[in-house]
Every structure is written in C-alpha cells, then in structure tokens.
C-alpha cells in the first residue's frame, strides 16, 4: 500500500464501498479480529502458520489475527443465519508478506457474500456483476476461472485415491502440484533415497517404539504408502496432456465454453462442472455482463486461500501491474459443509481492497 495514502482516506473509501454493498440488500456484520486458531488449522493445516500471525490468549488458547473474513462469516451464518442471506463487512485483515516485503501485512477488506441455494449460477452472476458495476469507473481488467473444473479433472484421473488426494491437496500450490504430477505420470524420478527406504527395514537394530516425533506404526504406514506408490502405474500421458490443456487455457468466456465441451468428450469427469460453467455464462449475460470480452484463465485462483471450489474472479489495474488484485472472489460451497456441522448451503462472495482501489485511480 503506498505510504502516501492516509489511513483515514482508506477508511472513508471502505465506508463508501460498504454503503454500496448495503444498498444491494446486504446486512452489515462484524467479526472479531482475534480468531481461534483451531478452526483455521483444521481447514488449512500447519501451512496457515506461514501466512497468519499466531498468538496466545488466556481464554481462547492459540489464536490468529484475522487472515480474512470469509471463514468467520460462514461460521456465523451456519450457526444462526436465515436463508437466503447477503452480508457485507469492512475491516482489517492480517497476513505475512514474506514473498513481497513491500506489501503491507495489515490492510482493509470490504466484502459482499451471498448464501442462496435457489440458483448458484445466478448467485455467481449477481456477485460478479455487483463488483463489476462498482469497479467500472476505474476501467479495471476482469479475469475469471473455475476451480470446480480443475477439481473435477483431478478427481477423474486414472490413478490411486492416495495420489488424487495428494494432487487435490496441492492444487493451490502450483509448483508442488506440478512436481507431483510429473512424478505420478512418470515424467520425473522419485526423490533420491525413496527406493532404498521402501526396500529396506528402517527399524533394523532399533528397539525404540518412537523415532523422533513419529511412532513405529506411523513410520510403517508411511513406508507401506511409499511401496504402494512405487508399484502404481503412471497416470496416462493422454490424461496429463488434457489436464495441461485445461490449466493453460486462456480465452474469453464465450470461446472457452466450446473448448471445455470438447475437452469433456475425452475427460468426462468434468462434464458436470462444464454444464455449471455454461449456466453461469448465461446468467452473466442476463445480468448484462459482456462475456464475449470477459477473460477466462484455466489456472486462475490457484494461489488464493484454499476454500474456493468453483467460480473465481479478480479485478486488476492494467496501468499498475505492480499492484495485487484490487478485488477477488469466488464460490466456496465446500467450506459451508466443513463449518456447517452437517448442514450446507451454496455460497459465493468477494472482497475489495479500498487502498488498492484508490491507488489504481481513486473512487468515482
């Protein structure tokens, strides 16, 4: 965030955006800045520690400064919200910026979330069009993607459930995902020493039931998994090629719809997701969105937090390539299942960073 933008100016812009979302029928809500760490660790594992600020509270135990609003808003809705529901909020979030020390670790978000099971495609279109209308005066470039298609493609690969789960877990870490895909498809060798570890007896000459922080049973289970993996046939090259085509796809939404249907002929696991994509295109058109000039990127959304599982979008300042996206959002149905404790509801939303909006050209 440029130092010249005063905090008061950013807060004024956040208030303006909040009022615009409230004008769409959204209820204004607030969430605590200090969040229990347990929920976030359950969702993202220990990896979240590299991105969040962790502290300790005498009553709460381990806690984190709010890394975003979506998780606490979903928790609030699943506990007490009526259906359908629209929420808006504004406040600070906190994320470590080790990869880019020039980005602020504390910044404002203003968000809009829709919980509605009637017509998910229409909800996707609603959220995107609301953001598009608000941001239109700044002339930002919009980009979209669909993680639901990628998830369906990975789930349909001809390989073991263990390998599919590993790829799904690392879908949001492109380098790790690529390394796993290359190894599982036979394009890359197993890490050095893995064959020897799988072939030998790691407990030979040892009496201790625990080695380091792992028990003997845990180590034996891991070695059994390594042995199974080393005897698993590679993922077929034809499937890897189709997945690569999907990941590298860059087209307008109108053109990509036909391309996706062609891919689905050879990758039937994505057909349901492609039909949802087609329904979304029609809903966006009905909202007046110019889908013929709206960009679609097959890999879009793979570096965000892992709760997105469908439509994803972002808005960028073309004249300021140094800036992060001014606004981002997407669908997160699976998150409502995880936090709903037996219940679920389709949900989609997004956030605008007011300081980036100001830096990109200011409010209208």
Automatic annotation (TrEMBL):
InterPro entries: aa-tRNA-synth_II/BPL/LPL, HisRS-like_core, HisRS/HisZ. It comes from the Bacteria. Keywords: Glycosyltransferase, Transferase. GO terms for biological process: histidyl-tRNA aminoacylation. SUPFAM superfamilies: Class II aaRS and biotin synthetases. GO terms for cellular component: cytoplasm. Residues 9-173, 224-352 form the Class II Histidinyl-tRNA synthetase (HisRS)-like catalytic core domain. GO terms for molecular function: glycosyltransferase activity; histidine-tRNA ligase activity. Coiled coil: none annotated. L-histidine binds at residues 68-70, 95, 109, 113, 302, 307-308. This is ATP phosphoribosyltransferase regulatory subunit. The lineage of its organism: Bacteria, Pseudomonadati, Pseudomonadota, Alphaproteobacteria, Rhodobacterales.
């Amino acid at each position: 965030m440029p130092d010249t933008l005063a905090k008061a100016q950013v807060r004024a812009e956040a208030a303006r955006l909040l009022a615009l979302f409230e004008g769409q029928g959204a209820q204004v809500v607030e969430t605590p800045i200090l969040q229990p760490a347990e929920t976030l660790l359950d969702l993202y594992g220990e990896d979240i520690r590299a991105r969040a600020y962790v502290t300790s509270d005498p009553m709460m135990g381990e806690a984190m400064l709010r890394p975003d609003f979506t998780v606490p808003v979903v928790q609030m809705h699943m506990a007490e919200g009526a259906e359908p529901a629209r929420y808006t909020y504004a406040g600070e979030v906190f994320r470590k910026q080790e990869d880019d020390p020039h980005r602020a670790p504390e910044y404002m978000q203003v968000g809009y979330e829709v919980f509605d099971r009637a017509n998910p495609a229409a909800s996707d279109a609603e959220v995107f069009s609301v953001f598009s209308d608000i941001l239109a005066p700044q002339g930002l470039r919009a980009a979209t993607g669909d993680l639901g298609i990628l998830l369906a493609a990975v789930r349909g690969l001809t390989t073991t459930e263990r390998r599919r789960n590993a790829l799904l877990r690392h879908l949001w870490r492109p380098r790790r995902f690529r390394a796993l895909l290359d190894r599982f498809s036979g394009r890359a060798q197993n890490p050095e020493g893995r064959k020897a570890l799988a072939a030998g007896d790691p407990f030979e000459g040892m009496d201790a039931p625990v080695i380091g922080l792992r028990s003997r049973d845990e180590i034996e289970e891991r070695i059994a998994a390594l042995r199974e993996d080393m005897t698993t046939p590679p993922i077929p090259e034809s499937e890897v090629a189709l997945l690569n085509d999907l990941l590298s796809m860059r087209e307008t939404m109108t053109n990509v719809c036909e391309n996706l249907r062609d891919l689905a002929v050879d990758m039937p696991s994505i057909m349901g997701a492609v039909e949802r994509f087609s329904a979304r295109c029609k809903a966006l058109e009905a909202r007046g969105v110019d889908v013929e000039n709206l960009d679609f990127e097959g890999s879009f959304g793979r570096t965000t937090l892992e709760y997105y599982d469908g439509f994803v979008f972002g808005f960028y300042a073309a004249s300021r390539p140094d800036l992060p996206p001014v606004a981002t959002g997407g669908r997160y149905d699976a998150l409502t299942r995880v936090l709903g404790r037996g219940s679920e509801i389709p949900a989609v939303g997004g956030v605008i960073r007011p300081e980036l909006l100001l830096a990109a050209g200011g409010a209208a």
